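Weekly modeling sync, notes
Attendees: S.R. (lead), two postdocs, one rotation student

Agenda item 3: backlog of single-chain predictions. S.R. asked that every request posted to the team notebook include the full sequence so nobody has to chase files. The rotation student volunteered to paste the first one in as an example of the format we agreed on. Action items at the bottom.

Example entry:
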Amino acid sequence: MGRCIVYFIYCGAHRPVLFANALKSIGEKITIITHDREIVKFCEYKNINCINFEFDDLYFRLLHKKGKFFKIIKEIKLLKKTLDDLLKKMNCNNSDKYICAGNRTKAIDAFYLAKELSSICQVYYKDLSSKPNEFKRPRLKPFFRGDITRFLIKRIMGLDLMFYELNSKPLFGVGRDFSEKYNFKEYNPSLSVENLLLQSLENRKILNKKYKNLIILGDLASKGEYTTDHLKANTTKNLFRKILELPVDFSFKKHPDAPPSLPFYSYFESYEEIPTFIPVEEVFPEVEKSIIAVYSISLLTASKLKHLKAISLLEMVEWESDLWKNEMKSWLKSESHNKILFPKNFWELQNLLIDDKYEKVTKENV
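Predicted structure, as returned to the notebook:
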């Protein structure tokens, strides 16, 4: 009798981990492949099989940092060796499945694994984009450094990559030719990813605690602001400072990639912090009232849990351009079937958090 099918799931961020854990909850045998130390911690905490490898964000150095090309060649060769060693550890057979949990951009390591494993087992990707239109159109503008790097990757690793762009910045990706050559197709389980996730969260208590309202801080940069180019400086800092003056019980969750210490965090010193290695959705069953964020894909999950209010602060921060704000709001409303709440001012937010009279207040203020 042969061994059972193993799902080898490449996870470069926390949302793919949720997807992997949801598959595990319905009885699938999974092994997570990652270079993220926070994900390794979570796998240890949840007793999930995990194979980790060292990968020092080569993607950003290859495209956006200056350096001599002989150093780039050395780094690409080192990455190939690291991944070849990883493939030996994985020891896949023809009944297994490899899933790159993300979209078809950025993850050079995941694409190389897919290419090499395509002759052994079925290879998939699962698009778990965290923002509207995250998988952008092909980039047609010439990009000298990127073109040279792409050529070197093809020569050394056999990967034929193409360029996409996100927020006018180039990123590597794979296209239709790659998918056809290696039969790299989208993985579609019998249940949707969202339903899988919701099912896996039912009656789950990962920390065995209770929280009233949870604030998701999101990506934080060196100055304590969101790492998006779309928000004006200090807008989130000022808003959170005011929110924390309310007589409301809050807990908070930082992004796993956020710096460990920032002046911005001083506002939250007296509030309980969710460990960064735990995907925030895993805690939702233990939150009693509200999930609060400026914008986050996790609000979509919160909006589908009956006991929670999903609150976006999108209308309460200042934007460099309303174009992106309106696109994000439209996407959140559509994906949540209009279940995410968008208070327009502090008074509406206060009523949401304190006395649950949001509908009454907004109608009186119209």
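Discussion: group reviewed the output briefly. The mean pLDDT is 80.
Action items: rotation student to repeat for the remaining queue; S.R. to check formatting next week.
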